[in-house]
């Protein structure tokens, strides 16, 4: 199926084919991932300087960064005793005042300036008397035929690498645009050019805008092209998959479902019921189900997974459920044993520490629950109808495919309690259908969240002791297992003895990833049985641990965790009828860190939290760029561009339908 193309000719030539780009310059550009002429033309400026308007040096303030222009009237390099430290300084004069610019321990900077040079300088004052900037961005003003692109214009300022001058790169891009702009063609499918600039015009506008408002117009056009290319790939993959596969009939007949629901002890919510209708339609349809189930912590995804498994089991097929940790796999094993064995269904557990003794074929329909051990080459499953993956964000795409390949195109249900921002849902999981459980079961206690400084810890521990004396249980979470020398981060192994004394006579248990599987299970069993009142742990407990009597969550060094991770941790409480309390301890001075924690204080809505996390950290940081499978977008912004992604999805769908019609 055709893919959108930008160009197949001159733009693919190496950047070294351009005049003035020798071996050294080509190596510098390669460090910026610029290898071809196309890469050069799509090298996005990091910001813009409106050089039509300067601030006089005498008017500079410490409040914000400004662009100024002046002549070098003095310069020099000073080395301190020992020779390891230095400061290079230039003094500029623009007729209104003087400005000192300093570079610490960068002696090579003296090679870039000469007495009498006119230069632009961009930065923020560090001192007022005398006016001083440390490590400002600078550019020497030179004459020549290209000087008009550097002065009296809105000038692009590019990401650079050592030894590559800003002015040189700007000039190179200007010349390349002049020569190759006509080679930039519209991709297929192209957007409506009555509403957006052409692609060649957008590339020019992103580099050399006439007005600063042109930049966002150009960015959106180029971002749309990126999203369209990705959507065509995603939708082509899905269409090709459906064309070559036939679904196993796993719609079920309700002979197991009805007694299961009757024995469940609670009624499914309307949201759970709606999702099950979508899943039943998929599992009885013509193509293998590929569905992502999102639901906030405590929304009842496990019950939906159980009903989905029963549909496949009723239809004569086996089912697997893979979880990221042994603790979660063992919890699922206990729950499903309790639910399924009265129905005559065998439930097996396969983890690193517990292996199934396999017979050549399983005579009865079974549910196989496990960790990564399920995808080991020696483990086989006959007649696999449904694969369920819990907390899918903990697994890579390749691991998901390994498990699916244990069968012949089984249905696939992947679940996450980490709500996925809509933009990521349409890109990262664009080849999956998405279901959302957007309703929590009734009878749950409210969760209140508070952010407190370390000096309030004694009062917080008094509060925990009060709750423990009332029969409740608590979690205490630290970011590390052992002391690594980072004094600001607490470690469970170090704090365990201290916490036992502080919370005596309540019994404190210790849980972390370095314990042996049997030790972990013993601690969890004691906590579930209320033999342990306080569980001291790392973030190991963030998924799946379900103890309704635990109503307090204390997280120390909360700033060391991501927003979504803290929301997951908070989801371990509020699972019973009692009011619950999440207390986040942090002395973070960083404005962003404090802002993140404030979001948790203000909302329990996982989707709002996920959107905020995406804006603060970006998708690569949030998901891990390699594991996520997301391309690196030059212009697209997954935190902001939902409308463009939807537009791209529609453009791609219309294009592929038209292509198939022409081929048909």
What are the salient characteristics of this protein?
single chain, 664 residues, alpha/beta, OB fold (Dihydrolipoamide Acetyltransferase, E2P), Rossmann fold, seven-stranded parallel β-sheet, six-stranded mixed β-sheet, 19 helices, 21 strands, globular
Write structural notes for this entry.
Among the domains are: about 55-150, OB fold (Dihydrolipoamide Acetyltransferase, E2P), CATH 2.40.50; about 255-435, P-loop containing nucleotide triphosphate hydrolases (Rossmann fold), CATH 3.40.50; about 445-605, 3-Layer(aba) Sandwich (Rossmann fold). A hairpin with a 4-residue loop joins strand 3 (about 85-95) and strand 4. It is built from 19 helices and 21 strands. Helix content is about 35%, strand content about 20%. The strands form four sheets. It has a seven-stranded parallel sheet with strand order 11-12-10-13-14-9-15, with helices on both faces. The protein has a six-stranded mixed sheet with strand order 6-4-3-2-5-7, with no helix packed on it. A six-stranded parallel sheet has the order 16-21-20-17-19-18, sandwiched between helices.
Write the layout of secondary structure elements.
Layout: H1 23-31, H2 37-41, E1 47-50, E2 66-79, E3 86-93, E4 98-104, E5 118-123, E6 132-134, E7 137-140, E8 154-157, H3 166-180, H4 199-207, H5 213-244, H6 257-263, H7 270-283, E9 290-295, H8 301-314, E10 318-322, H9 326-340, E11 346-350, E12 366-370, E13 384-389, H10 397-404, E14 411-416, H11 422-427, E15 433-437, E16 447-452, H12 457-469, E17 473-477, H13 492-502, E18 508-511, H14 517-528, E19 534-537, E20 550-555, H15 563-570, E21 580-585, H16 591-602, H17 606-623, H18 625-628, H19 642-663
Parallel strand pairs: 4-6, 9-14, 9-15, 10-12, 10-13, 11-12, 13-14, 16-21, 17-19, 17-20, 18-19, 20-21
Antiparallel strand pairs: 1-8, 2-3, 2-5, 3-4, 5-7
Helix pairs in contact: 4-5, 5-19, 7-8, 16-17
């Amino acid at each position: 199926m055709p893919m959108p193309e930008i160009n197949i000719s001159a733009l693919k030539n190496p950047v070294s084919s351009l005049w003035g780009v020798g071996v050294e310059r080509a190596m510098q550009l390669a460090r910026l991932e610029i290898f071809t002429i196309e890469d050069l033309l799509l090298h996005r400026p990091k910001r813009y300087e409106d050089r039509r308007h300067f601030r006089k040096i005498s008017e500079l303030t410490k409040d914000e960064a400004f662009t100024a222009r002046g002549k070098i009237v003095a310069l020099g390099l000073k080395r301190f005793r020992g020779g390891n430290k230095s400061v290079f300084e230039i003094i500029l004069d623009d007729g209104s005042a003087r400005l000192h610019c300093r570079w610490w321990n960068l002696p090579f900077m003296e090679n870039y300036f000469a007495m009498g040079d006119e230069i632009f300088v961009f930065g923020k004052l560090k001192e007022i008397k005398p006016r001083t900037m440390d490590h400002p961005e600078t550019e020497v003003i030179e004459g020549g035929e290209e000087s008009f692109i550097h002065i009296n214009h809105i000038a692009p300022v590019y990401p650079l690498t050592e030894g590559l001058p800003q002015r040189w790169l700007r000039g190179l891009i200007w010349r390349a645009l002049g020569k190759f702009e006509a080679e930039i063609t519209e991709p297929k499918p192209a957007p409506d050019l009555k509403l957006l600039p052409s692609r060649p015009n957008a590339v020019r506008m992103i580099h050399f805008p006439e007005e600063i408002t042109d930049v966002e117009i150009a960015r959106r056009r180029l971002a749309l092209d990126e999203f369209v290319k990705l959507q065509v790939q995603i939708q082509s993959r899905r269409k090709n998959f459906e064309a070559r596969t036939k679904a196993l009939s796993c719609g079920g007949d309700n002979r197991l479902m009805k007694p299961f629901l009757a024995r469940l002890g609670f009624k499914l919510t309307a949201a759970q019921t709606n999702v099950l209708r979508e899943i039943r339609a998929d599992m009885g349809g013509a193509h293998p189900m590929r569905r992502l189930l999102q639901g906030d912590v405590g929304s009842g995804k496990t019950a939906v997974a159980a009903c989905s498994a029963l549909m496949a089991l009723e239809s004569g097929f086996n089912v697997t459920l893979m979880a990221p940790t042994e603790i979660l796999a063992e919890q699922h094993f206990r729950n499903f044993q309790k639910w399924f064995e009265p129905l005559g269904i065998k439930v097996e557990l396969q983890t690193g520490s517990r292996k199934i003794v396999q017979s050549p074929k399983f005579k009865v329909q079974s549910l196989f629950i496990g960790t990564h051990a399920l995808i080991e080459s020696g483990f086989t499953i006959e007649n696999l109808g449904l694969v369920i993956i819990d907390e899918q964000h903990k697994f890579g795409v390749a691991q998901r495919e390994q498990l699916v390949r244990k069968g012949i195109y089984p249905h696939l249900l992947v679940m996450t309690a980490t709500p996925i921002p809509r933009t990521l849902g349409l890109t990262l999981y664009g080849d999956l259908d998405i279901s959302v459980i957007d309703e929590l079961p009734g009878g749950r206690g409210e969760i209140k969240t508070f952010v407190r400084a370390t000096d309030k810890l004694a009062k917080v521990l008094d509060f925990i002791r009060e709750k423990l004396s009332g029969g409740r249980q608590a979690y205490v979470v630290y970011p590390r297992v052992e002391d690594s020398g980072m004094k600001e981060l607490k470690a469970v192994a170090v704090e365990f003895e201290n916490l036992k004394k502080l919370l005596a006579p309540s019994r404190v248990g210790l849980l972390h990833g370095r314990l042996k599987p049997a030790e972990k299970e013993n601690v969890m069993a004691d906590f579930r049985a209320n033999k342990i009142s306080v569980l001291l742990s790392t973030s190991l407990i963030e998924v799946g641990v379900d103890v309704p009597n635990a109503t307090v969550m204390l997280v120390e060094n909360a700033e060391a965790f991501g927003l979504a991770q803290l929301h997951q941790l908070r989801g371990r409480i509020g699972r019973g009828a009692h009011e619950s309390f999440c207390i986040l301890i942090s002395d973070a001075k960083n404005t962003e860190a404090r802002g993140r924690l404030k979001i948790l204080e203000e909302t329990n809505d996982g989707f709002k939290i996920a959107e905020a996390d995406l804006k603060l950290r970006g998708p690569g940081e949030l998901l891990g760029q390699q594991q996520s499978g997301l391309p690196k977008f030059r212009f697209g912004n997954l935190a902001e561009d939902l409308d463009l992604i939807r537009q791209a999805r529609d453009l791609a769908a219309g294009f592929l339908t038209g292509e198939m019609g022409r081929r048909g």
